[in-house]
Design brief:
Strands 9-1-12 form a three-stranded mixed β-sheet. A hairpin with a 6-residue loop joins strand 7 and strand 8 (173-175). The chain has helices at residues 4-24, 54-62, 122-126, 153-157, 191-195, 206-217, 235-241, 246-253, 306-319, 322-338, 342-350; strands spanning 40-45, 89-94, 100-101, 107-113, 132-134, 141-143, 164-166, 173-175, 201-205, 224-227, 263-266, 285-288. The protein is of the alpha+beta class. The two termini are 23 Å apart.
C-alpha cells in the first residue's frame, strides 16, 4: 500500500511534466484582427485644433460625468488627464518661445487623448468576463458595468493608457470613450465631433476618414482647401441628398439630417503619417499632426497587436490544461515540504 509520499511524488512528477510541455508549445501568434468594413471612428487633425476644449465639455455632458478640479478655486472643470470621469482631453505641446502653432521647435501644438478603438483591442482580450467587447459591425469598443468584476486587467493591457478605474465607485466601474454609442439610436454621433467648431474632430466610417486623412496629407501647405465638420458623409449618402426623396433616404441611413458644414481654410503642414492606420494593428481613431506624434504623447507602437500573441499563449496554456497542472505541481511541491512522511512519524512513535 502506497504512502502519502508516493502519492505526492506522483502528482509532483505530473505537474513537472505538464510544465515542461508548456515550455515546448510554440507560441505562434494568431493573425492580428482587422477593422470591420463598416467600422466607425474619428479623425483628429491637430493642425485644425484651436484648443478650445469644447469637445471635453460636450463629452462630459453626453456621458453625465462630473467636473474634475486641479485648481484651488474649483471654478471650472480642469482635468489634467483622462480618468474614470473624463473620457476625452485636449493636451498641449510646448517648446521654447512658442512662436508658431504646429511647429516642433519654438512652437506649440494640440493633441486629443481618448480611446483609439483598436481593431484588435488588448482590453477586450484581457477582460476575463467579457465586460469589454468590440461590436462586430461598428467596431466600437464598449463596456458593460454589469459584467465587470473590477479586476482592472483592461487598464493594465491598454497601450494607450485609456480605460480608467473609478476608485470612488462602490461597484468598481471603468470609464472610457465609447464613441457615444448610446446616442446613435437617436441619430446623434460622437458629441466631441458634433461641437468641434473647426472640424478638428471628425466622425464617420473609418474607411472614409482614412481616405480624407490621405487627401489632407497630399495637400500643399498654405493652399486653400475645403474641410468638412461634424460628420464625414460618404459619397453615396451625398448623392442621396440630391434626390427628391432625400429626407426619406437620410432616415434610412440612420443619422440625423444636418446641413453641409464644410468650410475653406489654408491647409496646414502635415507629417506624412496617418497615426492609427497601422499602429497596433490599426485603430478606428486616426490622427494627423504637424509635430512628431511621440512628442505629442502618442506611443510608438508596432504594426501587430499584443493581443494576437498573448491570446495564443493563454489558449495554449489553459486550453490544454497545462497551466492548471503546472500550478497544481507547484502547490504539491509546497505541500510536500510541509507534510511529515508516515514512515518517519512511525519511527518516532516506536522509539
Amino acid at each position: 500500500m502506497g504512502t502519502r509520499r508516493d502519492f505526492l511524488k506522483g502528482v509532483l512528477a505530473s505537474g513537472a511534466a505538464a510544465t515542461a510541455g508548456a515550455v515546448a508549445i510554440p507560441a505562434a501568434a494568431r493573425e492580428t484582427r482587422s477593422r470591420p468594413p463598416e467600422a466607425l471612428g474619428l479623425l483628429y487633425d491637430s493642425t485644425l485644433c484651436v484648443g478650445c476644449k469644447a469637445c471635453v465639455a460636450a463629452c462630459k455632458e453626453a456621458n453625465n460625468n462630473p467636473a474634475e478640479f486641479s485648481t484651488v478655486d474649483h471654478l471650472w472643470d480642469t482635468p489634467l488627464d483622462t480618468s474614470g470621469y473624463t473620457f476625452n482631453l485636449i493636451k498641449m505641446y510646448r517648446n521654447g518661445t512658442m512662436d508658431a502653432k504646429d511647429q516642433e521647435i519654438n512652437g506649440y501644438a494640440f493633441m486629443k487623448t481618448s480611446c483609439m478603438h483598436c481593431a484588435d483591442p488588448s482590453c477586450v482580450s484581457a477582460c476575463p468576463v467579457s465586460a469589454m467587447t468590440k461590436d462586430p459591425v461598428t467596431g466600437v469598443v464598449g463596456y458593460n458595468p454589469d459584467k465587470c468584476i473590477g479586476c482592472r486587467y483592461c487598464v493594465a493591457a491598454c497601450p494607450f493608457g485609456i480605460p480608467k478605474y473609478q476608485y470612488d465607485s462602490p461597484t468598481g466601474r471603468i470609464g472610457k470613450c465609447e464613441l457615444c454609442r448610446h446616442r446613435h439610436k437617436d441619430g446623434h454621433y460622437s458629441a466631441c465631433a458634433e461641437v468641434c467648431p473647426t472640424g478638428a474632430t471628425l466622425f464617420g466610417r473609418t474607411e472614409d476618414l482614412l481616405a480624407e486623412a490621405k487627401r489632407r496629407i497630399a495637400m500643399k501647405p498654405g493652399e486653400l482647401n475645403r474641410f468638412p465638420r461634424g460628420r464625414l458623409r460618404p459619397a453615396q449618402e451625398k448623392a442621396l441628398q440630391g434626390k427628391p426623396d432625400g429626407k426619406g433616404e437620410m432616415k434610412r441611413v440612420g443619422w440625423r439630417h444636418e446641413p453641409d458644414q464644410s468650410y475653406e481654410t489654408p491647409a496646414g503642414k502635415y507629417l506624412q503619417h496617418v497615426y492609427g492606420e497601422k499602429e497596433y494593428g490599426g485603430t478606428q481613431v486616426l490622427k494627423l499632426s504637424g509635430v512628431n506624434f511621440e512628442k505629442l504623447g502618442m506611443p510608438n507602437l508596432p504594426p501587430d497587436a499584443a493581443a494576437a500573441l498573448s491570446e495564443t499563449i493563454q489558449h495554449n496554456l489553459y486550453g490544454n490544461l497545462i497551466m492548471p497542472f503546472a500550478v497544481l505541481g507547484a502547490m504539491t511541491w509546497v505541500a510536500k515540504r510541509n507534510v511529515k512522511p508516515e514512515d518517519e512519524s512511525s519511527d518516532k512513535e516506536g522509539s
